[in-house]
Amino acid sequence: MSEFIRTRLLDNNAALVQMLGLCPLLAVSNTAINALGMGIATISVVVVTNFLVSLIRPITKKEIRIPLFVLLIASVVTALEMMMNAYFHELYLVLGIFIPLIVTNCLIMARAEAYASKNAWWLSIKDGFFVGLGFALVMFAIGLMRELIGQGTLFTQAHLLFGEWGHHIELTLLKNYSGFLIAVLPPGAFFALAILVAIKNKRDIKKSQDR
Q: Could you list the residue ranges that cross the membrane (predicted)?
């Protein structure tokens, strides 16, 4: 794995290290499919936004760059929201207000300002994809943990994202399981994130000791 990819996926992960975008990360990760849907939406927005910001950087005046970036992000999110409403309507209803709230995700603005506004479009697309992927993987992992512990299932309501084929991957791993309510409530998201951060920190400490 190249340093470019490793930095964005692991070493400087947007969710585990920078703690960006925690609102959607914690709010919609109560199931794996919800987390996956929001993760894919976030990747799409950050990639397209990085691409557009990089394209217009030669003609963007420093004084207006932030309002312009916000306008671009809002336009991309609006287009994504309309597409999800048209093609993934049930999932769109489940994710609700958190789709338009992608506009306020600090992760997207941070990459636009820190990277896309200073680099070529192909590098900006690459940066957006791997930063978004790192964020989405953390969200998906939290969704898996919360759904398994809270409901004893995996990929429930997968048809919302994958259509009829999704019914074939819905799993009930713990039959007659009464559930662990706190896992699917907001505190469960914080506990799951804390576990992942602890694992990440443990890995970093071990890595530094092995040098």
A: 35-56, 68-88, 94-116, 128-145, 177-199
